[in-house]
Design a protein that fits this description.
Layout: E1 2-12, H1 22-25, H2 29-40, E2 41-42, E3 45-46, E4 50-58, E5 62-67, H3 78-90, E6 99-102, E7 105-109, H4 112-119, E8 123-133, E9 144-149, H5 156-162, E10 170-171, H6 179-197
Parallel strand pairs: 1-4, 1-9, 8-9, 8-10
Antiparallel strand pairs: 2-3, 4-5, 5-7, 6-7
The protein binds S-adenosylmethionine.
């Protein structure tokens, strides 16, 4: 299973944003929903070996989990994905950990901490421009988890939390790309390696 965690430093954790102006009203949730598309959807299908976590820190921290093996009706366009996030954020729960809202979609109160406790066994990697080239890295194909920043990058607190867990940052190339493109490049590398070992 592949898992991706995208940390939105300014992304709204409450549903009060306008679908017709997502970048301007949601603290750049548009970045996060594009990451969902990049990680979870490929041509005409959903990746059933992939789980995406979005961490929204623009407000009381909340996290969303979308499991490609279970989720249905996940559409590739930004507006539909934003509706999914908005409806999920409208559901308030005081239970601990992730609460399933519908098949494959779960929400939790809390930020990176709640995601880390949900992961269980995993090989974590932090995506960072200054890291080791992913093409030269010995990646775990079994249970990798990739942590990615938003338009502002990972903050110091997230880096400090992840540093002892991850072996060292991984780079997808010499240029700082958009978060969803960083995911696409990692996924492409994983797809190629898996195809080689088949
Ligand atoms: C737009 S970038 C953030 C840029 C931000 N100005 C910074 O300095 O962190 C968004 C995220 O994509 C990932 N990313 C972008 N380019 C990358 C690269 N070349 N290698 C690895 N990760 C990359 C990182 O996780 C980064 O936090």
């Amino acid at each position: 299973m592949r898992r991706f965690v995208v940390v939105g430093r300014t992304a709204r954790s409450t549903p009060e944003f306008k679908l017709q102006d997502l970048p301007g009203t949601s603290g750049r949730l548009d970045v996060l929903v594009r990451c969902v598309r990049a990680a979870l959807l490929c041509s005409h299908t959903i990746r059933d070996d992939t789980v995406v976590y979005l961490v929204m820190l623009g407000g009381p921290p909340r996290a969303l989990r979308i499991d490609g093996a279970l989720a249905q009706y996940v559409r590739p366009d930004e507006r539909n994905l934003a509706v999914l996030v908005q409806k999920s954020l409208a559901r308030v729960t005081d239970r601990e950990g992730f609460v399933e809202l519908r098949q494959g979609i779960a929400v939790a109160q809390g930020g990176l901490d709640v995601v880390l406790s949900d992961l269980g066994p995993a090989t974590p990697y932090v995506l960072d421009e200054g890291g080791l080239d992913v093409r030269d890295a010995a990646l775990s194909l079994a249970d990798p988890v990739f942590f990615c920043g938003d338009h502002l990058g990972l903050d110091d607190a997230a880096r400090a939390t992840l540093a002892p867990l991850a072996p060292g940052p991984l780079s997808v190339g010499p240029v700082s790309v958009h978060a969803e493109d960083a995911l696409t490049l990692v996924i492409n590398e994983l797809d190629r390696r898996r195809a080689k070992f088949r």
